[in-house]
Amino acid sequence: MLETSMDMHLLHRAASAYYVDGLRQAEIADRLGVSRPSISKLLAEARRIGMVRFEVLDVPTVDLEELAARLRGLLGIDSVRIAPGDQVQRGYRGIGGLLGEELSGLGIRPGEAVLLASGETVSSVASMGGMPPLPGALIVPTGGGQQEPDPAFQTNEIVRQFADRTGAEPRFLFAPAQTSPTLWASLQADPGFRSVVDLWDGARAAVLGIGGPYDSRASLTSVVPRHEPALQGAAGDICLHFFDGEGSTRTFPGSEFLVRLPLEMLRAIPTTIALAAGGEKVPSIRAGAKAGLFTSLITDVPTAEAVLAEAGVELPA
């Protein structure tokens, strides 16, 4: 948790303007209505408390293009992008940068919907700089999450942060991820709820996380039971759709009342970009690809090499 006696929002505005938007300190002072020396103090405090962090990127030790090509062939998907270094330790900064590049190339137009899932990786990159401007695009959550205690699963907040970064228009789902049969029926008849979930059909793109194997999962949304026999051995999940090692769907009692993007709509989206890094995600990545739940993958070198090694594919020199 960041601790400071200064105004946290003012710190964030000053740091974002200087380090992300590239404004001069005098310009920031005019924008925020404070003195030039105050900006210097704000920037120093932002660095001190860890709001601003610097990193020296690794020099790639392998041919990233060849590594991506081999992983793309193994998974049978359209695109693979690989960030150097261990991205879990780096707070997924490299993955966020590659996601910005991927989205920039899609030519997303005003009025088109971009769906955003929850989870640690997506939550981490949602507020990063380097995202392309998406004026007029609609950022839509892939599921409910209004009552989640873990910020990584608070879907509306993730959508808000990403929309702020891209200049897009957020759309919010005011519903929990898990509903009762009565609440489910009420939501289907609610115009506000329908106006958001109807955007799932025909979405231009989706940014997804890949949940790790169920049995060893450290972080799990509160709506999924911890010791559910039907999920034992599940290789992972995407948008709360669990699957086994061969990509076959796993269900559990009450899953029919989850507020989540339906599988048929997920598979119909032209570009579905999965973000995943970490050794525990290796079986989840392969199984999610077998299930046909993403068309593109953004990962890091250690994860990519581990996926190939597990499959017995020779690594590039």
Give short descriptive properties of this protein.
2 domains; 37% helix; Rossmann fold; three-stranded antiparallel sheet; 10 strands; alpha/beta; 12 helices; Arc Repressor Mutant, subunit A
Layout: helices, strands, pairs:
Elements: H1 8-20, H2 25-32, H3 36-48, H4 64-75, E1 79-83, H5 93-104, E2 113-116, H6 120-125, E3 138-141, H7 155-166, E4 169-170, H8 181-188, H9 191-197, E5 205-209, E6 236-238, E7 241-243, E8 249-250, H10 263-268, E9 271-275, H11 282-290, E10 296-300, H12 301-310
Parallel strand pairs: 1-10, 2-3, 2-5, 3-4, 5-9, 9-10
Antiparallel strand pairs: 6-7, 7-8
Helix pairs in contact: 1-2, 1-3, 2-3, 4-12, 11-12
Rg estimate, integer Å: 20 Å
Quickly give the structural class: alpha/beta
**What is the multimeric organization of the chains shown?**
single chain
Residue stretches low in confidence (pLDDT < 50, at least 5 long) are none
Class of the largest domain in CATH? Alpha Beta
Query: Can you give the helix content as a percent range?
Result: 25-40%
**Overall pLDDT level:** 92
Number of strands: 10
Form type: globular
Distance between the termini: 41 Å
**CATH architecture identity of the largest domain:** 3-Layer(aba) Sandwich
Q: What is the CATH topology of the largest domain? A: Rossmann fold
The strand line-up of the biggest sheet is 1-10-9-5-2-3-4
Largest sheet geometry: 7 strands, parallel
Alpha plus pi helix count: 12
Order of helices and strands: HHHHEHEHEHEHHEEEEHEHEH
